[in-house]
Design a protein that fits this description.
Blueprint: E1 7-8, H1 10-15, E2 40-55, E3 67-80, H2 86-98, H3 105-118, E4 123-126, E5 138-149, E6 153-163, E7 171-180, E8 185-186, H4 189-192, H5 195-211, H6 213-216, E9 230-232, E10 237-242, E11 255-260, H7 270-275
Parallel strand pairs: 1-2, 3-5
Antiparallel strand pairs: 2-3, 2-4, 5-6, 6-7, 7-8, 9-10, 10-11
Length: 279
């Protein structure tokens, strides 16, 4: 990839983790520590919490009191970014995590918590009670984590997990942001691949999924992931991430299909070739 240098706060990245119960959906990695020192990339962990009861839900759930609902977000957030892209990156993370942007991030997170709780069908009523130990509780979990960082790009993931009280299982999505430090912008798949490349890519992914069937199980892959969801791995692979149910059964979980960038270099835009140092 292109040469760009900065100082990386590796300890901050290592300190952030995805809960063990969700680790199979989003594994955090970090890359080379030998990054020269002419800029800075730093993170800190920000945590937001909220607790509710779902008003007038007791009778429907055959309980003596209304059903509790807990929410927590643990976000590894940038505090310093090389170049001019700090606001762009932070806004992209907040939008992906909480579907909103703004300066008051704690309020944005809590508004998202209230929204997800209300989608159960009851009015969430804020409480200070610790309901986390109640097995009947509904739950929202959000985790923002660094999937990969190099001197050129950051691959950042956001895992959203929602459990509705009484459901057989929760639902999770893991979505990725690829950020170009040099240009200070979020990289879309159409930035990297030409129109022809985007058209041909599903067939390539289907071939890869078939080759991986013994590991990931059978799939019904016919298209790119929803939202063209991808990240760039430490070994310069393009990794395409499908959500549970998107191309396979829920039991197969989140499915990631990895394609070495060099194998699709002829389908790249000039920007894509520059990003991966192919020209």
């Amino acid at each position: 990839m292109r040469k760009k240098t900065f100082t990386l706060a590796m300890a901050a990245i290592a300190a952030a983790s995805v809960p063990a119960m969700l680790a199979s959906c989003a594994n955090q990695t970090s890359t080379q520590s030998e990054i020269a020192r002419s800029g800075s990339l730093d993170f800190k962990t920000e945590t937001y919490k909220a607790s509710y009861t779902l008003k007038n839900s007791a009778q429907d759930y055959q309980r003596d009191k209304d059903v509790p609902y807990t929410a927590k977000a643990t976000m590894l957030m940038p505090t310093s970014v090389p170049g001019e892209g700090f606001d762009v990156l932070r806004n992209a993370i907040m939008k992906t995590a909480f579907d909103s942007i703004g300066s008051d991030e704690a309020t944005i997170a809590k508004n998202y918590f209230r929204k997800t709780a209300s989608e159960i069908g009851y009015t969430p009523e804020a409480t200070t009670d610790d309901t986390a130990s109640d097995m009947a509780a509904g739950e929202t979990i959000v985790n923002g984590f660094v999937q990969n960082v190099t001197s050129e790009i950051l691959s950042y993931g956001v895992l959203n997990y929602i459990y509705a009280p009484g459901a057989a299982h929760g639902m999770s999505t893991t979505r990725y942001i690829v950020f170009d430090f040099d240009n200070g912008n979020v990289v879309s798949l159409s930035d990297i691949l030409s129109a022809e490349g985007l058209e041909k890519l599903p067939a390539t992914l289907k071939e890869r999924a078939t080759a991986l069937e013994s590991a990931i199980g059978p799939t019904e892959l016919t298209a790119l992931p929803s939202g063209n969801n991808f990240y760039i791995s430490p070994d310069n692979n393009l990794v395409f991430v499908y959500q549970p149910y998107e191309i396979a059964s829920y039991a197969q979980g989140t499915i990631a299909i990895s394609v070495p960038a060099y194998t699709v270099s002829e389908l790249m835009t000039d920007y894509g070739k520059t990003l991966f140092n192919f020209q």
